[in-house]
Amino acid sequence: MIKVGQINCLEVTNKAEFGIFLDAGEYGTTLLPYKFAPQEVEVGQSIDVFLYFDSDRQLVATTEKPIAQVGEWGLMKVEGVNSTGAFVNWGIKDKDLLVPFSEQRGRLREGQTILVYVYTDKASGRIVGTTKFNKWLDNTPANYKTNQSVDLLIAERSELGYKAIINGQHWGMIFPSDIFGKLFIGKTLKGYIKQIRSDGKIDLSLQKVGVAKMDDLSAKVLELLEKKGGFLPLNDKSTPEAIFAAFRTSKGTFKKTIGGLFKQGKIKIEKDGIYLVDDSDIK
């Protein structure tokens, strides 16, 4: 089934002087200009193309990759504004994406970089964007468990912290006490469910919580020590930035973790870093 607004794998049915024709199923055939076509493509081969409608409602194919397909979020720059709405660059050279005024949470201005959700308007069949995310989120039960790994997209910043989209389906909040490293709108990263409150709101963490956090980091420290020949130039005096770069965790968690490993006799902590204790060193 052909999915307009997404990448499809289509078969080459014919070649002409100006491009190649692709089998677009229920839409018939669509033209892919040679400037977008792979070199030496032959009839019968299949290629991946992004499909969209032009202003005349004709199906267009391109091998350009959009910033976001239908059903996805993406960070896009506003290229212009007219009486219809704002037009943003979604990675397709000859086609900006319309964000109608009715789909703008606040009036957009040329030059802004914003997070946009791409969808197909049921009434017009047109692919458009929106900055009103609430109607696309929290429409299904949030059946998450504490410490469950999830995909996060940073969507908003507020006085409480950062709002993130969880697995493309739900809202969650990362509070300042759980933030380390740099966060910004549009950033994608792995995170963990910290808790689901009685009101259904979800708190997030960028690392596992409780004992599981310590156990997980302990394993990572020992594994990296093995790979690095038994030494890492990190200890409890290292900067938060250096620790985050190596383990994507806070300095406080790292200090507690290596302290635990030291007490277990698995590492030595020296001024220049930490050393893996070899079995032969244990008397």
From TrEMBL:
Transmembrane segments: none
Lineage: Bacteria, Pseudomonadati, Pseudomonadota, Gammaproteobacteria, Vibrionales
Chain ranges of the S1 motif domain: 3-64, 69-132, 145-207
Alphabetized SMART domains for the sequence: S1
Organism, scientific name: Vibrio olivae
Family to which this protein belongs: Belongs to the CvfB family.
Source organism, top-level taxon: Bacteria
Protein name: S1 RNA-binding domain-containing protein
Annotated InterPro entries: CvfB_fam, CvfB_S1_st, CvfB_WH, NA-bd_OB-fold, S1_domain, WH-like_DNA-bd_sf
